Fold:
Amino acid sequence: MTNTEDLPEVNGYSRVSVLVSAVVGLVVAGLALFWAQGFRLGYESLYRVNPSVEGGGIGADWVFGNTIPALDFLIALIHAADVIMGAFILVMVFIHWAAFQRLAGQMRDPGEDVGEAVAADGGSPAPGEGQGGDSS
Amino acid sequence: MSNLDHGKFTRVTTLFHSLLGLDVFLLFFTGYAIMFNDELWWMLTLMGGASGVTAIHRITGIGLVALVVFWITLQVISSTGRSNFAKILPAKDDVDAFIQDIQFVLGRVDERHPSARQFAGYKADEVPLLSYIGKGVVFIFSIELTLLAISGLLIWSKTGLAAMFQTKAAAMAFVTFHGLLGVIMLMGVMFHIFEHGMHPAFYPVETKAFIPRSMVPEHHGDDDEEPDTTGIERLSLSPSWRTVSTVFGAMTVIGIVSVLIGSIFDEGYPVPREIAIGGGPSSILLTVGINLGMVVLGVGLVLSMYGNVLRIRWEQQLEQEREPTTAADGGEPQTDGGQPESDDTEN
Structure:
């Protein structure tokens, strides 16, 4: 008997697939690292964009330096996406929050589980029995 | 008997989910500290300032590339992946489930649509692999992670950007794009944490994503007793659920709103579309709100770890339950914990 005989049939991923995928993932990540590091350090230091912890200033030349309208549009677009998606996500939070409240209303209140039904039968409360393991 | 605990994910999926979560949380904490450095100056300092935080961000970024490529490859080359893909495509049921959720909240219907349920409640076959929210999470996060990885690599490779656009402004535009894209993901992850942490039946964390379905027995009792309902009425509400879910829900909403306002207000650090004068916390409320959003993420990280602790406990429990069976076969249970036949072929 195997130790999983009593468990459901599972259509999992084969080991070969997992291994091949892991190798591909690592190789691509390595190549990405190699590419991202670049070959000319001069550019790296020239174009470095650091967080301006110690005051503003970085980006001040954006308005003057940008000669590509498409980039400006891209940023405006992503701003709009932020707002639209943010509003949508908030709606989803509120719907689920309210749904959870209703679901909670269908559940037994804390301490209620062993009280009414069992006592009405005249028997003593037997916690855990027939509760699906959630009677605590 | 209740059927609330059907596992749905394979072991590979649960492990991938945990690794991806850990990586993405690290990316958020570092990226968040950079983008909202005014409000999260302490995080930036804690992680070694500008150079330390960008170093961690890049290392975890490469980790993200590895994970994303691993997952895409696995879905393409394995039959399981290909068959699962069909199951997560959006369908009419998902629209119905969204509408029914609104009706459920308004009290027009008594139950959530099966495609909205995070748990089975019926036979496992009758419940989709993912709820409509789950499908949305998979698709939206997949697109965002891919775009974030590509734009992140472009920002990293200044030589690559320079070759394409020849201007410093272009590099900075990509930083802005990357940061603002991250904000969408950030808001989505906050909702994701709330959704899977505050469900009253699973509070404090839904274990579906941590305990693989191979470890979840599907039949607990009498086979003839197929439940008519989801079985939720048999469950007891945790005493702390109401308070914690209210507080955490408020924090989630405040966090999302603050990050959203911050992204508009900051115009996407570090490239203002108009010259920005000054710096520092622009508003106490915004600073508090964004920090609360960070706490929500922190709770998500803790819950993810807790889910893995539950899986380990569950594994130990299964081992203990099986040991007497092994002895009853006539053999002597000399091994402590080891299985006579370890069947690890399932992943």
